[in-house]
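// run 5 | inverse folding | seed 20
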């Protein structure tokens, strides 16, 4: 029994393939490094994070990219022994202009190193690569049309030459989109003599939908599915899975068809989705030459039977990272920059993770921040750190983070007299507030434990001295401000926000001396109420 979502927490824009008995899904990572998450499964039920292919600066230079910039909508494909990955590295996108260079990397080993990137185009985003049965390859993407506020110029296609490693020939219009508008996220397939084009439409919020069109000819014209859209919750605000869209199709080894799509799970009707945009899977059947969801409507089910499987997927929710190994847990990511020994190391003090302080939580360039996705509605996150700051500009602690202007930070800082104190900061729409009117005085030495208890939208902070019980600190915080829906609310409805909530460890040294903090362990645990 499969239980949706299959990829919980921030895992949007899924692209799925099958190679033999193996299934892979690639999802967007935006400003988080390394770029692109690849999950693997043999049964479509249980998925494991196995790779992040864009793991060096030559493939992905994101220093200075805006919040929710970076890697948009990767497309993973496979042909004749080679894996192909198309992705955008978005540099700017607010206003009418969109600076969206698109690249291609390849490998013969999906778990190994990927090539340096081949530049494709900057005319749009959400690019994908179609391998035509005749041997030719085609790149397709949405086209950004900035004129008169139009934004989406439909889907265009251009041939890709593998031998020349570039696009060749004329850019061809493929599909203008439907009345739902905001056409993007195209993927192309060929089945039984038809070319099938799937697109995302209606925007990536509560109007999101999956559209389908087909043609006997590659360049069209494309006719729209008679019951378009084939997947959406736009007319069902009470459905548990909202915002469903940006989909991809895959055929199983047994000849069954499935669709993956992004989704959001709001805390209330059209409320805030604190876990970000996640990935769901549904079964597809073909009727009169058209795909449709097997259950006969346009909604995603929570529980799905896959073949004869009786095992229910249960992603691990209790994780203790002890920092006693030679490599970091794969769930960790950094912001914009590679994880390198000059700021993040397990070697300088064995048994500890050492972070050398860099820029502030408002920086778009060099932050010493290591974090993982929030994947459950009820989560406890904790750490213990040894930190001896010399002044108030040196800080380290536990962060709950959405972007540079929405976060909570429970941290240790230095005092003017050379001691240590605990403070809690809130950043909400650029406004930063100290939540403890009087900082908590800490002993001059010894490890300090810090904890967030996050229940739905409520976050309570705790701290503890070595060997002592947990103590509450600060008020109950509103965790729902760490969501797309809050950042892009009614007063800022066009402010882009596409990521999700993270929790993690960070260290700042605003004096530029790179003073360090040592973290003994990091706990992530789901709890029941």
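// decoded
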């Amino acid at each position: 029994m499969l239980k949706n979502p299959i990829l919980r927490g921030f895992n949007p824009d899924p692209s799925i393939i099958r190679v033999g008995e193996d299934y892979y899904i690639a999802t967007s990572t935006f400003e988080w490094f390394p770029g692109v998450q690849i999950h693997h499964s043999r049964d479509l039920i249980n998925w494991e994070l196995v790779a992040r292919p864009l793991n060096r600066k030559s493939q992905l230079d994101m220093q200075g990219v805006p919040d929710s910039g970076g890697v948009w909508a990767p497309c993973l494909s496979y042909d004749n022994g080679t894996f192909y990955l198309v992705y955008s590295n978005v540099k700017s996108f607010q206003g009418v202009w969109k600076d969206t260079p698109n690249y291609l990397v390849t490998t013969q080993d999906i778990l190994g190193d990927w090539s340096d990137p081949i530049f494709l185009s900057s005319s749009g985003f959400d690019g994908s690569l179609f391998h035509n049965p005749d041997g030719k390859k085609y790149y397709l993407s949405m086209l950004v049309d900035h004129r008169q506020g139009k934004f989406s110029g439909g889907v265009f296609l251009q041939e890709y030459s593998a031998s020349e490693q570039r696009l060749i020939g004329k850019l061809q219009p493929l599909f203008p989109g439907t009345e739902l508008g905001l056409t993007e996220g195209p993927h192309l397939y060929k089945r039984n003599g038809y070319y099938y084009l799937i697109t995302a439409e209606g925007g990536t919020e509560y109007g999101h939908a999956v559209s389908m069109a087909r043609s006997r000819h590659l360049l069209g014209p494309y006719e729209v599915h008679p019951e378009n859209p084939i997947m959406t919750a736009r007319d069902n605000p009470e459905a548990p899975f909202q915002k469903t869209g940006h989909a991809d199709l895959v055929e199983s080894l047994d000849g069954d068809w499935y669709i993956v799509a992004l989704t959001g799970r709001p805390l209330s009707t059209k409320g805030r989705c604190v876990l970000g945009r996640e990935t769901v899977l549904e079964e597809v059947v073909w009727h009169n030459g058209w795909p449709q969801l097997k259950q006969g409507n346009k909604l995603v089910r929570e529980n799905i039977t896959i073949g004869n499987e009786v095992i229910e997927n249960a992603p691990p929710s209790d994780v203790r990272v002890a920092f006693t190994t030679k490599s970091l847990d794969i769930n960790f990511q950094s912001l914009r920059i590679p994880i390198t020994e000059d700021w993040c190391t397990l070697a300088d003090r064995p048994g500890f993770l050492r972070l050398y302080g860099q820029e502030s939580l408002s920086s778009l360039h060099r932050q010493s921040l290591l974090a993982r996705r929030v994947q459950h509605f009820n989560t406890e996150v904790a750490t213990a750190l040894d930190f001896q700051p010399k002044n108030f500009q040196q800080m380290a602690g536990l962060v709950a983070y959405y972007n540079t202007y929405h976060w909570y930070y429970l941290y240790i800082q230095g005092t003017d007299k050379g001691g240590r104190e605990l403070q809690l900061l809130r950043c909400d729409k650029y406004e930063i507030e100290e939540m403890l009117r009087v900082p908590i005085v800490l002993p001059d030495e010894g490890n300090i434990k810090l904890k967030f208890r996050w229940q739905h939208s409520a976050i309570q902070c705790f701290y503890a001295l070595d060997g002592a019980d947990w103590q509450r600190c600060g008020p109950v915080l509103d965790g729902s401000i760490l969501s797309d829906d809050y950042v892009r609310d009614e007063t800022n409805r066009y402010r882009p926000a596409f990521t999700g909530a993270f929790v993690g460890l960070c260290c700042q040294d605003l004096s530029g001396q790179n003073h360090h903090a040592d973290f003994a362990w990091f706990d992530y645990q789901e709890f029941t109420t």
